[in-house]
Fold this sequence. Notes:
Blueprint: E1 5-13, H1 18-27, E2 35-42, E3 49-56, H2 59-65, H3 69-78, E4 82-91
Antiparallel strand pairs: 1-3, 1-4, 2-3
Amino acid sequence: MEEMFGLVGQMRAVPGKRQELIALLQAGTGDMPGNLLYLVAEDLDDPDAIWVTEVWKTRTDHENSLKLPAVQDAIAAARPILAGFGTRAEMRPVGYSG
């Protein structure tokens, strides 16, 4: 049986486009099989940065989500306003209440 999979990563929008990036991510991630949490948060110290926290039933569920049409569309729409990525960490969640 596959273990749960999680990741936390920072993304940076081009200046002034953070809210647009957040909207695109939220629109493309509404129905992803195996997803237990998809949290988008504003970085309080950087007006162009966001953090995304994801918890999945399995790593395979996460990998499969990247093939979903809505996710592919969100990625394509976000590329022009994405300035880069910051810290990223993968993890194995060992407890979950939701």
